Amino acid sequence: MAQFALYDDGLYVYYTAVPEPAELAALFGAIALGFAAWRRRRAGR
To answer: In the predicted model, what is the mean pLDDT of the chain?
Structure first.
């Protein structure tokens, strides 16, 4: 999401407004794992 570039006159940070597909897949995967863990904990009560 962020790129850093060091030039003679300073450090520049570039941000991308649109995340890459791999980042979206990782985010959705983490959300799905969290949701599954939450449901599993809740079902055990």
So the answer is: 87
